[in-house]
Amino acid sequence: MCFFLLRCDYIVRKKSSSTYWLDFERIKKRGECSRPHVSYGNYDTVFRSRCIKMALVHDMAECIVGDITPWCGISKEEKHQQERDAMDKLCKLAGDQTGQEILELWEEYSQQTTAESKAVKDLDKFDMLLQAFEYEKLLKSPKKLQNFFDNNKGSFNSAEVNNWMEELQNLRTLQRHDEPDGNLPNNGYVKILQE
Questions:
Q1: Is the confidence at residue 20, as pLDDT, over 80?
Q2: What DSSP assignment string belongs to 144-170?
Q3: What is the Cα Rg of the chain in Å?
Q4: Among candidate residues 54, 27, 52, the one with its CA nearest the CA of residue 40
Q5: Residues 38, 51: contact at Cβ < 8 Å?
Q6: 3-state secondary structure of 68
Q7: 13 in helix, strand or coil?
C-alpha cells in the first residue's frame, strides 16, 4: 500500500506548502501532496461516503486561519475556536443545508468520537508521515523528520494503518541518500515505485 500512496504523491499536489514543511527551503517550491486519502483501506465498519465527505472538509478552515500546528504557540482551545469561526463563515457561504452538513462533518471530525472520524484522522496522519518520508528523501537526510514519526508512534486506531506504518518504517530503513536523486536503493523497491 505504501508504494501506491507514494506514487500518488507524484500525481496530485496542492498549490500551497503545508506549515509543517515551510522550514525546509528546498521543499517550499514542491507543494504538499493532496492524496485522496480516504479511498484507501479496508474499513468495513465505516461509511466510506461519510469518510470521503469528512476528509474533504476537515481542513477547510485552514483556507482562512492557516495551518495551525503545535509549534505555533496557540492552545488547542484557541485553535479550535479560530477554526470554528472560520467554518461558520465558510458554511454561511455554502447555504443552509449544505453549510449545516459541512459544519456537522467538521465537528464530528474535531470531536473524534465516531469510527469515521477516527478513520479519517488515521489516514490524515499517515499521509503526513508519507510526506515526511518523501521530504527526507529529497533532502537526502535520513531520519531528519524523525520527530514526526516519534510523535505519531502508536497513535493509529486501525490495525491496517498500523501495518502501513510498519511498512513505511521498513522503507525508511532501506532509504539511501547518497544517490543523486535520493532514491531508494536498487533492490526492487525502486522498480515498484517507478512503475
A1: no
A2: TTHHHHHHHTT--S-HHHHHHHHHHHH
A3: 18
A4: 52
A5: yes
A6: coil
A7: strand
d(CA 84, CA 60): 10
| 3-class DSSP state of 39 | helix
pLDDT for residue 111: 96
> Is 102's pLDDT higher than 90?
yes
For helices 115-139 and 96-111, the axis angle rounded to 10 degrees is 70
Burial classification of residue 1, based on how many CB atoms lie within 10 Å of its CB (0-12 exposed, 13-18 middle, 19 or more buried): middle
CA distances from 46 to 13, 117, 119, 183 (A): 27, 9, 8, 36
132-151: pLDDT as tens digits: 898 888 888 888 888 889 98
In angstroms, rounded to a whole number, what is the distance separating the alpha carbons of residues 122 and 192? 25
Query: Is 119:38 a contact under the CB 8 Å cutoff?
Result: yes
Nearest to 126 by CA among 180, 74, 167: 167
Spatial CB neighbours of 169, under 8 Å, sequence gap ≥ 6: 149
Helix axes 159-174, 2-11, angle to 10 degrees: 80
CA distances from 86 to 12, 54, 101, 193 (A): 26, 16, 15, 39
3-state class (DSSP) for residue 130: helix
Alpha helices in the chain (DSSP H): 2-11, 48-57, 62-65, 76-94, 96-111, 115-139, 146-152, 159-174, 189-194
